[in-house]
Structures are given as C-alpha cells and as structure tokens.
Amino acid sequence: MLKRILPIPFMVIIRLYQYLISPVLGAHCRFSPSCSEYAHQALSRYGLIKGTCLAVCRILKCHPFHPGGIDPVP
After folding, report:
1. What pTM did the predictor assign?
2. Is the Cβ–Cβ distance between 74 and 54 less than 8 Å?
3. Spatial contact of 6 and 39, defined as CB atoms under 8 Å apart
4. With b meaning 16 or more CB within 10 Å and e meaning fewer, what string describes 34-60?
5. Burial of 7 from C-beta contacts in 10 A (0-12 / 13-18 / 19+)
6. Distance between CA 48 and CA 22 in Å, rounded?
7. What is the pLDDT of residue 1?
8. CA atoms of 74 and 65, how far apart (whole Å)
9. Nearest one of 8, 69, 30 to 16, comparing CA atoms
10. Chain centroid to CA 32: how far?
C-alpha cells in the first residue's frame, strides 16, 4: 500500500507539468512516450525508488546525440 501512496505527490507534479508547462514550452521529447509520461508510468508501476531510477535513466538518454524512438516502461 505504501508503495502506491508514496509516488502520488510526484505523479501530481508530473501531471501539472504536462498540463501547465509543457504546452507553453512545446513538445521536444525525442521518445515515445514522452519523458514525463514515462516517468509517470514508471512511478505508477514500480513505486517511488525504482520508478525514479527508471525516470532518471530515461531523462539522461534524452539528448541530441541519442536517436530516440519508442521506449516503453519495462
């Protein structure tokens, strides 16, 4: 139960980013799903610790020298 409750504040922050900030900045993510959606799914599926680790690894891959593409949450 705690595994599902702890990531909720972070998931809310991600959704706020998606609805309030991302439309202003425009879509720049080279991956599908976007890095923010990937982070939301990872936190939802794996909890705070593993979800955060997966999200950070994904964000570190999101740069101009990586080809991007389809990269779902494992």
Report:
1. 0.89
2. yes
3. no
4. bbbbbbbbbbeebbbeebbebbeebee
5. buried
6. 23
7. 66
8. 23
9. 8
10. 11
Name which of 42, 67, 40 is nearest 54 in CA terms: 42
Q: Compute φ and ψ for 27, nearest 5 degrees.
A: -80, 120
Q: What are phi and psi of 8, to 5 degrees?
A: -55, -45
What integer pLDDT is reported at residue 58 of this predicted model? 95
Predicted confidence at residue 61, as pLDDT, reads 92
Give pLDDT tens digits for 9-31. Answer: 999 999 999 999 999 988 788 89
CB 55 within 8 A of CB 42: yes
From the CB of residue 73, how many other CB atoms can be counted at a distance below 10 Å? 18
Which amino acid makes up residue 12?
A: V
Q: What digits encode the pLDDT tens for the residues 44-60?
A: 999 999 999 999 999 99
CA dist., res. 34 & res. 5, Å (int): 23
